[in-house]
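A further point concerns the way the authors explain their paired sequence and structure data. Since the whole study asks how a given chain folds, the encoding of that fold should be made plain. A single example would do more here than another paragraph of explanation. An entry of this sort, consisting of the sequence and the corresponding backbone structure tokens, reads as follows:

_____
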Amino acid sequence: MDRIIRAVGGEFIKISVITAKDTVQYANLVHNCSPTACAALGRTLCAASMLGGMMKEENASLTIRINGGGTIGGITAVSDSQGNVRGYALNPSADLPLKADGKLDVGGIVGSDGMFTVSRDLGLKEPYIGSVELVSGEIAEDLTQYLTESEQVPSACALGVLIDTDGSVKAAGGFIAQLMPGAPEELISKLEDNIFYMDQLTTILDEDGAEAVFAQVMKGLDYHIVGEQNVAYKCYCSRERVSAAVASIGPEELESIIGEGRDITVSCQFCDTTYEFSVDDLKKMLAEKNSEEK
């Protein structure tokens, strides 16, 4: 079971760790991702899940959008306030050769000429939106930049997806460590050293689990767990919601489709579920639309 664990280190450090192997593997299967696209999408899903799970508003949602001009074409990930997440890449088949160090070239397919955007929908009239320029397209560095610049919270982040030889997800997860105002310099230096010298994130998650991430990031520092929640890949699409989206194209477009006498099929971008609407269904939508406008 995938989960987010939260801890605090004294009064100056907040840290969230996510393990998301099943979540990322589900996305991998739904979207038929290349290994590199799976890593890019998976990292973004982990980031969105941790940020979404930090929101206190019960029905809030958070969306991360990344468009760096790379061949993946852009990534979207949406989380609810419980950390359940869904997402997609515009071109999930995008791939590149491994880098010289043998790692997947996530930054290469994402690109770094663009923006990292986070929007929070708290149920108000307008969502809160913050954006920063991409640093590398590797996702974790870009998330760190966003938290530090847009939200004014000095942070350290790591995200990783380990792809097995058969193309499945062997491990996935990450952490966000945030410093509160007034943190002493020696504490900051100790945390930075711990993160610099820690083992590779996906190796820790694969071999020892989330608890070992805390042990390495917070080595030599006091901390205690304050919360834990299960998370999963969760799409909220339904026939009713998709029907409303189809109806929103407007009466003229609906009349044009009806006039062609063709049924239509709509696929959810997040979970690939397909919904079919007959000409009679479209006529009913049009009648309801015209009735609403009178």
About this structure: Residues 35-53 form the longest helix (19 residues). The longest strand covers residues 169-179. The chain has two domains: 3-230, 239-293.
